[in-house]
């Protein structure tokens, strides 16, 4: 089971729509943070398969958090179906055993 901490975050998609542009420094920092998250997933044999602005959350400390693992796949396995429970500010994803 994958558990996600409570997240009172806004998606990068929403931030871009509201502000129309980002500072280059901010974009570079968030890109690096997402690259680290993807590197971690790949080291665990997981492919995200759905990286997009609406699946990148920005928290109150302006840190990027990768979400949207419902399409993720474990490398070398058949497609895994994830089950999720969501509310406005929380998402928990459960992988079958």
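^ structure tokens above, recovered residues below v
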């Amino acid at each position: 089971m994958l558990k996600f901490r409570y997240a009172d975050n806004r998606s990068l998609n929403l931030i871009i729509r509201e502000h129309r542009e980002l500072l280059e420094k901010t974009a570079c920092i968030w890109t690096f943070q997402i690259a680290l998250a993807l590197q971690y997933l790949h080291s665990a044999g997981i492919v995200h398969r759905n990286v997009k602005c609406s699946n990148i959350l920005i928290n109150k400390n302006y840190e990027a958090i990768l979400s949207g693992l419902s399409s993720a796949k474990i490398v070398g396995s058949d497609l895994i179906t994830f089950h999720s429970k969501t509310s406005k500010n929380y998402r928990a994803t459960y992988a079958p055993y």
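Residues 93-97 have pLDDT under 50 and may be disordered.
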